[in-house]
Amino acid sequence: MSSPGIVAALGEPALLAGFGLAGALLYPAAGDAQVRAAWAGLPKTVSVVVLTPSAARALSDELDDPAAPLTAVLP
Hints:
The chain is α/β, with parallel strands linked by helices. It contains three helices and four strands. Helix content is 32%, strand content 27%.
């Protein structure tokens, strides 16, 4: 049996706060450059990343990589 993965949340800080209460690792990032840097620095143990809409737009090319973590975009 494999060990459970880690959930992370990435994007604007004001939209991420509640995910920290649920145990997600928070990666606050305000602009496209910060979002891409945070994404590149995610630990290999992260399996799922919750993204804010603007973070998802900034990462549109990276999200197509089959080796990337599973992502969910906030409405």
